[in-house]
Amino acid sequence: MSSPQAFDALAPSYDTDFTSSPIARYLREQVHDRLLQHFRAGDHVLELGCGTGEDARFLAQQGVRVTATDSSEAMLAAARAKLAGNPLVQVERLDLQGLSASSYQPSVFAGVFSNFGAVNCLSEWRTLAAWLSERVMPGGIVGLGVMSPLCLWEPLWHGVHGNLATATRRWKHEGATFNTNGSPLTIHYPTIRRLQRDFSEWFTCTAVRPLGVFLPPSDVYGAIEKRPKLLGMLIGLEQHFGHWTVLAPFADHYWIEFKRK
Ligand SMILES: C[S@@+](CC[C@H](N)C(=O)[O-])C[C@H]1O[C@@H](n2cnc3c(N)ncnc32)[C@H](O)[C@@H]1O
Prior knowledge:
The protein contains ten helices and nine strands. By secondary structure, the chain is an alpha/beta fold. It has a single domain, classed as Rossmann fold, CATH 3.40.50. The strands form two sheets. Strands 3-2-1-4-5-9-8 form a seven-stranded mixed β-sheet, sandwiched between helices. Strands 6-7 form a two-stranded antiparallel ribbon. It is globular. The chain binds S-adenosylmethionine. S-adenosylmethionine binds next to helix 3.
């Protein structure tokens, strides 16, 4: 189970610690490029696990209407503060672990997206796919940024540093449990194939891209970002090879897109 309180504790410093870091900014731009391929001014899209509302703000700047949702009240408060007065963004509470049959009208959304691992808080994805299938219009796109089970950086970096438990945490069937300021949080790392299977009844998988093959996971950002030459080299590698679909299973996150049948 994921606890909203775990993310409440992260919310006040989330933008300083994560959103504004050079590596996260680079990866977010890649996601924005994907979103712009599908969503146009006037579309209405649903965002799952919006955090502090960075992507909702970006899409609203392009004229896209966003219903931005999250289960953490502190994240929602940060998003409301960031997006106050923005007529194109509605910030609402939605818990992916308690999806209600009565939320939102049938086929109301042109698309849905979720960035940076919000769906890793689930332990199965078929329930989400079935729920989305009733709310996304035929032909609509669902784009998900998912933490991958095989991220190469994690065993290499943490293995070399002698931290075997961290090096192998993504491989556990039962997920990895974190303790964030006293609140437990379990993260699951679905394979690309698992997500494709859970969505397959209602959606066709149309694209898979790596997000962060050469760039490290967020707990290593600090160590890399204080070495500007190394950071520049890794961003260069990411720019050249980081979009190769074949590398997606080995990235920190993968980006997966589904089209409503
Ligand atoms: C790593 S943050 C990503 C935030 C944002 N999407 C971004 O790009 O910065 C994960 C987000 O998922 C949210 N989340 C976790 N479990 C959730 C759940 N069961 N339902 C809805 N949101 C959840 C958290 O509150 C948090 O805001």
